[in-house]
Amino acid sequence: MDKPRVLVARAIFPQVLDRLREHFEVEANPDDRIYDHAELIRRLQGKQGALTTGSERIDAEVLDANPQLRAVCNMAVGYNNFDLPACTARGVLATNTPDVLTETTADFGFALMMAAARRICESEHFLRRGEWTRWSYDMFVGADVHGATLGILGMGRIGQAIARRGALGFGMRVIYHNRSRLPAEQESPIGARWVDKAALLREADHLVLVLPYGAQSHHAIGAAELAQMKRSATLTNLARGGIVDDVALATALRDRRIAAAGLDVFENEPRVHPDLLALSNVVLTPHIASASVATRLAMANLAADNLIAALGCGPDAGRPPSLLNPQPRGAD
Fold this sequence. Notes:
About 35% of the residues lie in helices and about 15% in strands. By secondary structure, it is of the alpha/beta class.
């Protein structure tokens, strides 16, 4: 019996490719080229499945051009590159990789927040330029993290992991805003307090964004929201580009309406708005919050698990571990 054919749209760990080859005829992308829309449609011809990343847009056009496609499996927790209703309507299983990156992403978020608050990158650049010639009492003074108020917008798995680090490791007061309040047994151990969005913006010394991206969260932080924050506050975005209006943020940072920011995600990434690049009070990283070897390998393996199960192979045949659309039309 012929093996199902799958596309692995970006370069991944060789050992994960070897796993997939046990079950599938695999078309890999060892050069790690990003396929444009037309090439993605072409490369999916005759494929029953695809292992994707956030750079591959799976929309109605792609699906209609490839009616044989049965599963698309993202190596990411986010899935705004999927038109999920279109997948569901066409009976295509869609999956992501939640949970395995929670702790690593929370570590990085805390590091990014602290780098912004304590002006670490700004001071390092100063030192590297050879400008450090003496000590002064106000040289790169920043904001304390310990004992400060940590505000979290979006209190899912990663938000809760960041809250634990802040409350238990740094004695921070934790406030959060989420569509739904957490159960008391989740709030109590870290003293987390639900507040409305206006109070979150007004009270947070360090605001961290970890909400999913969608139409409702587009520009959830814009000029009006930034104006409500403390001038001494920092903003950290680990979530998705587009949640923050990057132009409005650059203006607020330039005018010192907030003190600093740490950004791992951007609108229109990998392009970064030039106004942000020109600022010294923002820490910029290239979407690497989950980038530890162990975590990226776990993400790739979970994406492979999903693809293997979705296409009817292995012990979990037909039951991908992290299915996003549990009842797509035409699926068993």
